[in-house]
From TrEMBL, chains A, B:
Pfam entry (one): Peptidase_M20
Cofactor(s) needed: Zn(2+)
InterPro entries per the UniProt record, alphabetical: Amidase_Cbmase, Bact_exopeptidase_dim_dom, Peptidase_M20, Peptidase_M20_dimer
Residues that bind Zn(2+) 1: 79, 90, 186
Family: Belongs to the peptidase M20 family.
Annotated binding of Zn(2+) 2, by residue: 90, 125, 378
UniProt keyword list: Hydrolase, Metal-binding, Zinc
Protein name: Zn-dependent hydrolase
Length: 406, 406
C-alpha cells in the first residue's frame, strides 16, 4: 500500500505554488506558477529514478522502466493547472498519486514487466485557454498541433508562445507515444460519493459537453437621455439569455447542467447602455441526443430574445466533447482493486471532462474517483481527506500493477 | 455672432487627443490624454489673453477681465473628459463654445462690465471615477474635498493622486470662487430637439438620478458536476436583477429610465459557476417621489431574487442627484437670446446630469442644448452639425453678455 503521509505532504508542498486568496490555488495553465509546479514535479520524478520526456504540447511523461523494453507503458496522470480560484486537489491529486505509485514501487523494489509512467497534461482546465483538455486532445488526434498552439487567452497570448516562454515546448510529437493502458485518479468534484458514503467511484464514462461563445451586439447610448423604447441594450438581452440557459437545464432535468461562467460587458461604463456583451456557455448531458436538443433550445432562445429587439447575436459552438464510455477491462481492473482492498465503491459517470476522456480514444482507459467535501470543486475551499486520497492511490497502484504484468 | 468655422476647427483639433476606435474619443478623466486636452485648452485661453486658475479638484478657470474688477465673473464651461467610447461633442462643445465666446469678444473689442470666464470641470462623466460631476459637486459644497480626492477607479487609483500625477491639482479651494451667473452649452444627448425640429433647447432643469452598486455573492463550484439544485449562481441571480431593473423603468413609463452599465463576474471562468457579481445601477426620473419609489422597487426586486436562493446581496446607494430647476432669470436670458437670433427653440428637461446642476446650487444657472444626430451620445458615433453648434454658441454669447453688464 502507498504512503498516505508522503502523498499528503507532496500535495501540500505543491499547493504552496500559486497560492490563492482563500486557501486554494491560482496556478493558471502556462503561467510562471505552472512552470514552478512542473519543475517541482520533474525534480521529484528524477529523484525517484524516472526519465523525462516532453512533447510539443508541453505534456510531460516520467517513466519508470519495466523489465520488457518492448512493451508500452502503463500510464497514469492528470494536470497541474488550476482554475483562477481553484482547489489543491483537482488534477494535482492524479499527478501526485502517480508519483506516489512510483515511489511505492521503489520502496518495495517491485519490478513491472511494462514500464510505469506518470503524465502531466497541459491546460486541462480550459479556463485560461479554451477548450479544456486541449493538449490530451492533440495527443489523441482530436485537434491538430496548430490548433493546439494557436489557442489564445483573453490577452491574445497563445499556448505555443507561452509553452516556449516557460520552457516546456518539448520535442516529442504528441501522440507518438504508445500507451498500454491509462488510469486517471481524481477527486469526484461532485456530491454523489459523499452522499452514498462510498470511498471509491469506479468511473465508467463521462457526460458530453458543448461549449459556446456568444457575442450580442446592440448599440451604446446615454443611460440618462435614451428613452427605453429606443434602446438596444446588449446586457438586457444577455441577461435574458442567461435566464433562458438556466431554464434549459431545468427543462432537461435531472441530468442536464448549464452554466454561463464568463461575461464581458462593453464599454462597461456606469452611464452608458452596454453596446456589446461576450459570454461563454457550457451545456452538459450524459445523453448525446439530449445534448443536441439542448443546443437547439439554446439557439432558439438566443434568436427569440435577440431578433425581435434588433440585437445581433453571434453564437458559435467552439467545443464538443461527446459522452464517452471507458474500457471495460480497465474499469474492471479499478473495480477489482477497490474490492480487494475492501473499499466501499460504486459505478459513477463523470460530470467533468478529464484528460482520460481523450486518452480513451487511443488507449484502454479508466478513472478512479474519491469523494470531496460537499462535492465542491472549482472553489478554493475544495477539500478531501488524506485517507480517501490514499485509498484512491492504492486502487490506482493495484489497477496499474494488474495491467503492467505481461 | 461667433465664428462657426473656428469653433468647428477647435472641436476637431481637440478630438485628435485620445482618439477612439470608431471615430470618437477615449479621453478618460485624469488620464494622460485628459492632461493633453487640458494643456491645449489652457494654451488656447492664454493665447486669447485669459488668466488661468486651477482649484484643488483640478477645475480650471480661464478669465477675460471686465471693466469692474469688483464684480464676480459670468462663467460658462463644461468638461473635457469622455466615456471609454465617447463622442467628440459631449462636454467638449461646452468648453470650446466658451472659448469661442471669448475669441469673439476679442475679435470685436467688446468690453464687459463683469469678467467673462470659461471653466473645465474634472471627471464629469463619472465613468472612470464615480459619481459623475464630482468636482463641480465639491465646488458646490455637496461633497467635501476628501471625498472628492478619495474617489478611486477600478484599479484603485484615486482622483487626488491622479490630479497630482498629471499636474492639475491647483491651489484654489474649490468653491472659493464667486460666480455671478453660470451657463453651460451642451449637445442634448437625446432625440427630442431633432424630433421637434428645434435648434435650441432652453433647459429648465434636470431629472433626478440615483446610482447604486450591488454585489451578489453565491458560491463558486464546478460547472459540470454541480447539480442545478445545489447551485448558488451569482450570475443567474444578477441576470434576473438586470431584467427586473429594466422592468422598473417600464412600470414607471413614460419618463423613467434604468440602466445596468457595468458588470464584473468573478472568477469569470468558463467552467466555474460564478461566485460573485458586481454591478452598477442607474435609476432616473424627473419626479423625486417616483425616483424614491423606483429605489424601493429595486430593493424589493433584489431581495425577492436573492433571498430565496441564498445569494447574499449588498446594495448601496452611492449617489443621489435630485431633480433640479434652473434659475428663471438665466433661463429667460437663454430664451431671449434664442428668440432674438430667430432660432427655433423649446423648453426641455435634461435627461443627463451636468456640472451646471451642481453649480446651480451656488450661482444662478441655466443651460443651452443643441440637437445631436439620432439623439445618440455616449457612443463614438455621436454627431452634431457645425450650424447647430454655432447657433448654441451664439445663444451662449448673448445670454452671457446680458448677464455681464451691470
Ligand atoms: N476536471 C475538470 O475540472 N476539468 C475541467 C473541464 C471541465 O469543465 O469539465
Ligand atoms: N452629460 C453627461 O453625459 N453626463 C454624465 C453624467 C450622466 O450620466 O448624466
Amino acid at each position: 500500500t502507498v504512503n498516505q503521509d508522503r502523498l499528503w505532504d507532496s500535495l501540500m508542498e505543491m499547493a504552496k505554488i500559486g497560492p490563492g486568496i482563500a486557501g486554494g490555488n491560482c496556478r493558471l495553465a502556462l503561467s510562471d506558477f505552472d512552470r514552478e509546479g512542473r519543475d517541482l514535479f520533474v525534480r521529484w520524478c528524477q529523484e525517484a529514478g524516472c526519465s523525462i520526456t516532453v512533447d510539443k504540447m508541453g505534456n510531460i511523461f516520467a517513466r519508470r522502466p519495466g523489465t520488457d523494453p518492448s512493451m508500452a507503458p502503463v500510464t497514469t496522470g492528470s494536470h497541474l493547472d488550476t482554475q483562477p480560484t481553484g482547489g489543491k486537489f483537482d488534477g494535482v491529486f492524479g499527478v501526485l498519486a502517480g508519483l506516489e505509485v512510483i515511489r511505492t514501487l521503489n520502496d518495495h523494489g517491485v519490478e513491472t514487466t511494462a514500464p510505469v509512467e506518470v503524465s502531466v497534461w497541459t491546460n486541462e482546465e480550459g479556463s485560461r485557454f479554451a477548450p479544456a483538455m486541449v493538449a490530451s486532445g492533440v495527443f489523441a488526434g482530436v485537434f491538430d498541433l496548430d490548433y493546439g498552439h494557436s489557442r489564445a487567452d483573453i490577452d491574445g497570448k497563445t499556448i505555443g508562445d507561452e509553452l516556449e516562454r516557460i520552457g516546456y515546448k518539448g520535442d516529442e510529437t504528441p501522440g507518438e507515444h504508445p500507451i498500454r493502458a491509462f488510469f486517471e485518479a481524481h477527486i469526484e468534484q461532485g456530491p454523489i460519493l459523499e452522499a452514498e458514503e462510498k470511498t471509491i467511484g469506479v468511473v465508467t464514462g463521462a457526460q458530453g459537453q458543448r461549449w459556446f461563445e456568444a457575442t450580442l451586439t446592440g448599440s451604446e447610448s446615454h443611460a440618462g437621455t435614451t428613452p427605453m423604447n429606443r434602446r438596444k441594450d446588449a446586457l438586457v438581452a444577455a441577461s435574458k439569455l442567461v435566464t433562458a440557459i438556466n431554464e434549459i437545464a431545468l427543462a432537461n432535468a435531472p441530468h442536464a447542467v448549464t452554466t454561463v461562467g464568463m461575461m464581458q460587458v462593453s464599454p462597461n461604463s456606469r452611464n452608458t447602455i452596454p453596446g456589446s456583451v461576450f459570454m461563454t456557455i457550457d451545456l452538459r448531458h450524459p445523453d448525446d441526443a439530449t445534448l443536441s436538443r439542448m443546443e437547439e433550445e439554446l439557439r432558439s432562445a438566443c434568436a427569440g430574445i435577440c431578433d425581435p429587439v434588433g440585437i445581433a447575436a453571434e453564437l458559435e459552438n467552439i467545443w464538443y466533447s461527446p459522452p464517452i464510455s471507458f474500457d471495460p477491462d480497465c474499469v474492471s481492473a479499478v473495480k477489482n482493486a477497490a474490492g480487494t482492498a475492501g473499499y466501499g465503491n460504486m459505478d459513477i459517470i463523470s460530470g467533468a471532462g478529464h484528460d482520460a476522456c481523450y486518452i480513451s480514444r487511443v488507449a484502454p482507459t479508466a478513472m478512479i474517483f474519491v469523494p470531496c467535501e460537499d462535492g465542491v470543486s472549482h472553489n478554493e475551499a475544495e477539500s478531501a481527506t488524506p485517507q480517501d486520497l490514499a485509498a484512491g492511490c492504492n486502487v490506482l497502484l493495484h489497477a496499474m500493477l494488474e495491467r503492467a504484468s505481461a
